[in-house]
Amino acid sequence: MKKALITGANKSIGFETARQLLQQGYYVYLGSRSIEKGKLAIEKLKNEGLTKAELIQLDVNDSASVEAARIELGKKTDVLDVLINNAGINGGMPQEALNASIEQLQNVFNTNLYGVVRVTQAFIDLLQKSEQPRIVNVSSSGCSLTLHSDPTWKYYDHKSAVYAPSKAALNMYTIALAYELKDSNFKVNAVCPGFVATDFNGHRGTGTIQEARTRIAKYATIGKDGPTGKFFSEEYNPETGECPW
């Protein structure tokens, strides 16, 4: 049975992705900063008959928490097949280039970039023991430099000087990570779940959470001939799924 760890999995897209992987036969570790919310999420899944789920307390902002989570997971398994770096924050609005504070930028980068680095580096040894390890970094088409430079793009006027830079940096980290692992069986990709109405964005959106989870799960479970080092947004490009950087 393949095993997956999802950060920020106690609610929303992370939780729904956990549900889908469980339905596909994976054993899923739900990373949750809050023990209480994590326990409620596990209970909900088990009430649905999805019993192959366990809670791992994990705050991606805290190196000590990440290290403790690695120790805890190491007691439960010696191999990890999938890591989904889902935990993220938007940093609040407004996000104007001339008014965004350094503190605001630091807080968002600490979660959206540094958090991914902390978790990936901490759990890479378990992933390396998998025959077909997969890493999905949850990104956003809203961080595409190409799209944001195109006045004809439908979201051209929706600039953010905090959240988008954090995800653009995450994309570059994804490229670097995929390159370092290119001579292995790893598949490492950045995936945009789409513009989905959740509490993350004030419940505004055009896509469904079911679509979002399916997109993430797709790249978490790709076969040996699947892509690596790519950026996907099936909302932006329904045909190939690939999104410009």
Could you describe the 3D structure shown?
Pfam families: adh_short. It comes from Fulvivirga sediminis. α1 packs across α7 and α3 runs parallel beside α4. This protein has one domain: 3-Layer(aba) Sandwich (Rossmann fold), CATH 3.40.50.720. The protein starts with a strand and ends in a 13-residue tail after the last strand. The protein has 245 residues and is α/β, with parallel strands linked by helices. It has seven helices and seven strands, in the order βαβαβαβαβααβαβ. The model has no long low-confidence stretch (mean pLDDT 95). 40% of the residues lie in helices and 13% in strands. Strands 3-2-1-4-5-6-7 form a seven-stranded parallel sheet, sandwiched between helices. The longest helix has 26 residues.
What would you say about this model in short?
With 245 residues, the chain is an alpha/beta fold. Helix content is 40%, strand content 13%. α4 links the parallel β4 and β5.
What shape does the CA trace take? globular
The N- to C-terminal Cα distance equals 34 Å
Q: Give the helix proportion (percent range).
A: 40-55%
CATH superfamily: NAD(P)-binding Rossmann-like Domain
Strand order of the largest sheet: 3-2-1-4-5-6-7
What is the string of SSEs from the N terminus onward? EHEHEHEHEHHEHE
Secondary-structure content class:
alpha/beta
Radius of gyration: 17 Å
CATH fold label: Rossmann fold
The stretches of 5 or more residues where confidence is low (pLDDT under 50) are none
Largest sheet: 7 strands, parallel
Number of helices: 7
CATH architectural category = 3-Layer(aba) Sandwich
CATH class: Alpha Beta
Average pLDDT for all residues: 95
Provide the β-strand percentage band: 5-15%
The tally of domains stands at: 1
- What is the number of strand segments? 7
